Predict the 3D structure of the following.
Amino acid sequence: MRFNVMILLLGTSCICLALAQVSYDDCCLKYAKKMSGNAQKHAVKYRRQEPDGGCNIPAVVFTMRKGRVLCADPREKWVAALMTAIDKKEAKDYGNKHQRRHLRPRFHRG
């Protein structure tokens, strides 16, 4: 009986510890001070990191074309400008893709 209780407590403890662990894989721990204009052209998307759970600082995480990520301070002007540029490009790409889908092919009758 004692052995069963010990196994149950040990198993419960392991489960609790596993659930309580925080993953730091996707958290920014520091900011890039700047990004060159040429590098900014390669940013394709971004996400916001809020300081909750395991992430200690607010950040904007930019993803580049080849998958590289760069963490930036959301209070910087260049960060806000780059986010706006990415949003505009996504809206333009969505509009072009949506418009192309509804165009009918035109045939020339001769």
